[in-house]
Amino acid sequence: MAFDTTTSLRTRLWTIGERVLGAVEWFRPPALLAARVYVASVFFRSGLTKLRDWDTTQALFNDEYHVPLLNPSVAAFMGTGAELALPVLLVAGLFGRFAAAGLSVLNVVAVLSLTDIPEAALMGHVFWGSLLAALLLWGPGCLSVDHFLMPRLRAWVNRP
């Protein structure tokens, strides 16, 4: 009889665990959407700031941001363009992993190009990087254009 009680308790605990995991899984799509919107807003606002005062942006890229392998003017143009275009793709979830990868590169270059970065700013970049890593690993989720577009693209690519 003790065997039946133990088995029954184990079965009940397993069932409760499965239900809890199912409930947690329900939060994944809105959490991925929230991560996309948050990170995109940070980078997009940064791009708008650079665009509003292009002379200051050029001066920053000439004097403070030492982007490796790129001319400062080219780096300013590419960085600002990426900060304005990639967040739009990320929010829509259109080529979401591509957008997350591009913003990850931008994030790393931003950290490496600053010679003296305050600890709080570095922690912000680490946080954004962790959100972008999650989006790279799990994709933009089912609340995205990719969720509807990718199966159609796969079918189109694989058709005879």
Q: How do the helices and strands line up, and which of them pair or pack?
A:
Blueprint: H1 2-26, H2 28-52, H3 54-63, H4 72-92, H5 96-113, H6 119-138, H7 145-158
Helix pairs in contact: 2-4, 2-6, 3-4, 4-5, 5-6
Explained architecture:
This protein has one domain. The longest helix is centred in the N-terminal third of the chain and has 25 residues, at 2-26. The protein is mainly alpha-helical and 160 residues long. It is elongated and about 75 Å long. It has 7 helices and no strands. It is 83% helix and 0% strand. The model has no long low-confidence stretch (mean pLDDT 93).
Characteristic terms for this protein:
single chain, 160 residues, mainly alpha, 83% helix, elongated
Relative helix content: over 70%
SS field, number of helical segments? 7
- Most strands sheet: none
Strand content: under 5%
Global morphology = elongated
Number of strands: 0
| Termini Cα gap | 62 Å
The radius of gyration over CA amounts to 22 Å
Number of domains: 1
- Backbone structural class: mainly alpha
State the low-pLDDT regions, or none: none
Mean pLDDT over all positions: 93
**Oligomer category:** single chain
Helices and strands, in N-to-C order?
HHHHHHH
